[in-house]
Amino acid sequence: EKLASELRASLTIEDPLFLKGLPVNYPKEKGMTKGLFEWFYFNDELAEFVIQKIPISFPVVLESSWFPNYYSVFKPSEMSDFLNRFVRPKRKMFIGSVPLEDIQKLYGRIDYYVEVPRRNAYSTIDQWWPGVLKNIDSVDVIIPAAGMASRVIAKRLWELNKKVHCLDFGSVIDAVSSFAPSRKWIKLKGHVLNRILLPEYR
């Protein structure tokens, strides 16, 4: 319930600088390829939850939470350009469980690494959140890869009013890591993500 409460709060943040992404657009979303990016199995329930359960009193725009996956597979040059401009040259904090050596193949040098459990990261947030706060003023970009806890991280950072970008790249990092493929698209197309790695790791 605590997780649900923080997730609901994140969806009610009203500001054009706080982008909210949910996988509720299937099968109309541009770039959706039959057999590759499959529908989110709670698609209808999630859409109903957002529309009917969240007390949103303003027009809301839900961005695609899949755009990093699409661009990494279908438009790798654009994705590489984005990483080269807005991520790789910046001071960065990574919050997740992927090994540091794998993360740096994609994002470049990671200045601060906050380790969280591979599953159910939110259940231990009181233990690892102080590690985020400790170095938050020393970075420009925070990259969460903690499942649903990533949304909570974004909400909490917003509430702190820190001048930092929080970028959730979803399962892209899993596709370039040594972890077993976690999604169908990784099993089928994960190998093409070598094109967006730093040149020394291709």
Question: Layout of SSEs?
Answer:
Elements: H1 2-11, E1 20-21, H2 43-53, E2 62-63, H3 67-74, H4 76-86, E3 92-96, H5 100-107, E4 112-115, H6 125-135, E5 141-145, H7 149-160, E6 165-166, H8 172-176, H9 184-189
Helix pairs in contact: 1-7, 3-4
Describe this structure in words.
- Helix content is 41%, strand content 10%.
- The chain is α/β, with parallel strands linked by helices and 202 residues long.
- The strands form two sheets. The chain has a four-stranded parallel sheet, covered by helices on one side.
- The longest helix has 12 residues.
- It is globular, with a radius of gyration of 17 Å.
Radius of gyration: 17 Å
- Which residues sit in consecutive blocks of at least 5 with pLDDT less than 50? none
Q: Give a count of the beta strands, DSSP E runs of length 2 or more.
A: 6
Main sheet attributes: strand count, strand direction, barrel closure = 4 strands, parallel
The share of residues in extended strands comes to 5-15%
Mean pLDDT: 83
End-to-end span in angstroms? 43 Å
What percentage of residues falls in helices of 4 or more residues?
Answer: 40-55%
H and E order: HEHEHHEHEHEHEHH
- Helix/strand/pairing category: alpha/beta
Helix count from the secondary structure assignment: 9
What's the multimeric state? single chain
The main sheet orders its strands as 4-3-5-6
Q: What sort of overall outline do the alpha carbons produce when their principal axes are compared?
A: globular
